[in-house]
Design goal:
- Chain B: Belongs to the RNase PH family.
- Chain B: One of its GO terms (cellular component) is nuclear exosome (RNase complex).
- Chain B: This is 3' exoribonuclease family, domain 1-domain-containing protein.
- Chain B: It comes from Podospora fimiseda.
- Chain B: Pfam families: RNase_PH (PF01138), RNase_PH_C (PF03725).
- The complex is a heterodimer of chains A (353) and B (270).
- With 353 residues, chain A is an alpha+beta fold.
- Chain A folds into 2 domains: 77 residues, Beta Barrel (OB fold (Dihydrolipoamide Acetyltransferase, E2P)), CATH 2.40.50.100; 237 residues, OB fold (Dihydrolipoamide Acetyltransferase, E2P).
- Chain A contains 6 helices and 19 strands.
- In chain A, strands 8, 9, 10, 11, 12 and 13 form a 6-stranded antiparallel beta sheet that branches.
- In chain A, a hairpin with a 6-residue loop joins strand 16 and strand 17.
- Chain A is flat and about 80 Å long.
- Chain A starts with 55 loop residues before the first strand and ends with a helix.
- Chain B is α+β, with helices and mostly antiparallel strands.
- Chain B has one domain: GHMP Kinase, N-terminal domain (Ribosomal Protein S5, domain 2, 2-Layer Sandwich), CATH 3.30.230.
- Chain B has 5 helices and 10 strands, in the order αβββββαβαββαββα.
- In chain B, the strands form 2 sheets. Chain B has a 6-stranded mixed beta sheet, with helices on one face.
- In chain B, helix 2 packs across helix 3.
- About 4% of the residues of chain B have low confidence.
- Classes of the chains: A alpha+beta (353), B alpha+beta (270).
- Chains A and B meet through strand 1, strand 6 and strand 7 of A and strand 3 and helix 5 of B.
Chain lengths: 353, 270
């Protein structure tokens, strides 16, 4: 009896594949001639092949040889050709005549106006360097923060000398991207009462833009929500860069005064920018609020682990679902935990499967 | 332990039962570590390699060990820094390999240069791409497996590149000394064959014939080199197809799960 040797089977692909490729695993004798030289390399054209993987392009794949299209991010044109070629694995997006490839996953790329949460990693003479999860550190100039004692005050040398009293290494802050450099570096500013140092809460890093779940740019990135189980109000700040801050809601002085004065204008901002703004001391956070902050954090990690997007709507729904889940099966203090099976249950409830 | 290569001529089957132009089983996964920017796991036969890519990110404080593929950290281009760790248990004899091991250092610089040739490093000035490779098991074609794993991890990290860098090894059935004129070229050598036979590692850019890495550390007759190279380049194309399939399957799964929005096909343009 002749012996036949079967090659080991690769794990079954998820999608039935009939890729137009020569099957390298085949044991047939017809391929014994193997190498064929002199043949020009096959051109892989998304436009014309009926690939089962619709919508996905991979590096080196020619998107179109048609010179009418313009080349956007994630593509390049090899020299001496007009072929727009993908340089990323991702999906094609088209804006009029501009073709770009959105990667399946990538680092955050800053854009002007983005709300970001960052961490100070370096203090320099007149600026801070902030980690915002981008390819480079962002910079926050001393002139772009609210100085205590009046917003429109000029930056002085005294401020430069005590730069560490505003932000020191390791401090977290929320800021807005003010300006971009040609090389992709970002400049931040915190010139609004919404921005500034972060306290009284917990930090979560999830993958930011660039697909694969995570935080998406939306209408509202920061909001206040009611905590369940007797907790106070909770602030959530979703940085576009995928850094999230969940904290106890602290009434700003303007809010404390009640509705008497309308909108903290630029005139009475002065007294609002108090010394406490740059304090690194946490306020007292009660246990209930802490638990709910932890629960929200669990919801976010569960959303990310199950590949769901993180935005206000999802987080609100997820939080209510999590509170209900904790009420239904009460098993002690573990009810905050939303990893593993519980996380999958939560995701299943949210996607309605 | 000398390998009995004489049996090859009888059945035209190699020690592990493959024919001359067959690759070993290539199995790969991407996104194996959620916390990393990009990660991959690759098996070529029993050679098993893990890769984690961090970056492009701000270069940290300068440390020794890594070999740069580009110029300094403050240059116009991103710097590719490769670090290879070979586990003590990875080969048959437990060998302690320190950080300064010359063979490892050479592989680091080879992988770094290969990646730097394909990655669009000019898009990320003043930054650094850290590639960390872990060898879990060795059975020949180590450098090829490292290059393939690093390519996959870079694709996963979403770093723009010209094309995949796919690598494999090629050898010849007869030793240099044997002076055998009818020697066949072999594709994708395992450890046993690599010990005994002349071999080279070749990496190409995508399925073009552009060779980015060619390493040959053994004595081989010049007349056989061309055949070996041709077989190697052909193997690289097969490897590229397999790597591409891994990436596409992952992407397809992400679209099915709704993690990524479906893109516009160019067919429904205009």
């Amino acid at each position: 009896m002749p012996i036949t040797i079967h090659p080991p089977k690769p794990p079954r692909p998820l999608i039935s594949d009939n890729l137009p490729s020569d099957d390298s695993d085949s044991d047939s004798d017809t391929s014994i001639g193997g190498v064929d030289l002199g043949l020009p390399p096959k051109k892989r054209l998304t436009q014309f092949t009926s690939s089962p993987y619709t919508g996905i392009v991979t590096p080196g794949e020619i998107i179109t040889p048609d010179p009418q299209w313009m080349r956007g991010h994630g593509t390049y044109i090899p020299p001496q050709t007009t072929d727009i070629t993908s340089s990323l694995a991702g999906t094609i997006t088209r804006t009029n005549k501009l073709i770009s490839v959105r990667p399946l996953r990538a680092r955050y790329t800053p854009e002007v106006g983005d709300l970001v949460v960052g961490r100070i990693v370096e203090v320099q003479a007149k600026r801070w360097r902030v980690d915002v999860g981008s390819t480079q550190l962002a910079s926050l100039p001393l002139s772009a923060i609210n100085l205590p004692g009046g917003i429109l005050r000029k930056r002085t040398e005294t401020d430069e000398l005590q730069i560490r009293t505003f932000f020191a290494e390791g401090d977290l802050l929320v800021a807005e991207v003010q300006q971009l450099f040609q090389d992709g570096g970002a400049v931040l500013h915190t010139r609004s009462l919404k921005y500034g140092k972060l306290r009284n809460g917990a930090f979560v890093a999830v993958s930011g833009m660039g697909g694969g779940g995570g935080v998406v740019r939306s209408r509202r990135q920061a909001w206040t929500m009611e905590g369940a189980n007797g907790a106070g109000q909770i602030d959530v700040c979703l940085g576009v860069n995928g850094y999230v801050w969940i904290s106890k809601h602290v009434e700003t002085p303007a809010e404390l005064e009640g509705g008497g004065k309308t909108a903290a204008g630029i005139t009475n901002m002065e007294e609002n920018v108090s010394a406490t703004m740059y304090s690194s001391q946490n306020d007292k956070v009660d246990t209930e609020t802490m638990r709910e902050i932890a629960r929200l954090r669990g919801v976010i990690t569960a959303l990310v682990e199950n590949g769901l997007r993180v935005d206000e709507e999802m987080l609100n729904r997820g939080y209510h679902e999590a509170v209900e889940m904790a009420m239904v099966d009460w098993n002690g203090p573990d009810d905050i935990y939303l990893g593993g099976e519980r996380g999958e249950m939560l995701a299943a409830a949210l996607t309605g499967k | 332990m000398p390998l009995d290569t004489s049996t090859y001529s009888l059945a035209l089957l190699r020690v592990d039962g493959r024919r001359w132009n067959e690759l070993r089983r290539l199995h790969a996964q991407i996104r194996t570590q959620a916390a990393a920017d990009g990660s991959s796991y690759l098996e070529m036969g029993h050679t098993k390699v893990m890769c984690v890519v961090t970056g492009p990110s701000e270069p940290g404080p300068r440390r020794g060990g890594g070999i740069g593929g580009g110029a300094g950290g403050q240059s116009k281009d991103a710097e590719v820094v490769v670090n290879i760790v070979i586990a003590g248990f990875s080969s048959v004899d437990r060998k302690r390999r320190g950080r300064g091991d010359k063979r490892t250092q050479e592989m680091q610089s080879t992988v770094a240069n290969a990646l730097a040739a394909s990655l669009h490093t000019h898009l990320f000035p003043h930054s650094q791409i850290n590639v960390s490779l872990h060898v879990l098991s060795q059975d020949g074609s180590l450098l090829a497996a490292l290059i393939n794993a690093a390519t996959l991890a870079c694709v996963d990290a979403g770093i723009p590149m010209t094309d995949y860098v796919a690598a494999c090894t090629a050898g010849s059935t007869s030793t240099y000394a044997a002076n055998d004129e009818s020697a066949d070229p072999l594709l994708d050598l395992n450890h046993q064959e690599e010990q005994e036979l002349p071999s080279l590692t070749v990496a190409t850019l995508g399925d073009s014939d552009r060779v980015v890495v060619l390493v040959c550390e053994s004595r081989v007759q010049i007349s056989r080199l061309e055949g070996m190279l041709a077989v190697g380049v052909d193997g690289c194309k097969q490897v590229r197809e397999l790597l591409d399939r891994v990436v596409r399957e992952k992407g397809q799964r992400m679209i099915l799960e709704g993690t990524v929005e479906k893109g516009t096909g160019l067919n429904d343009l205009d």
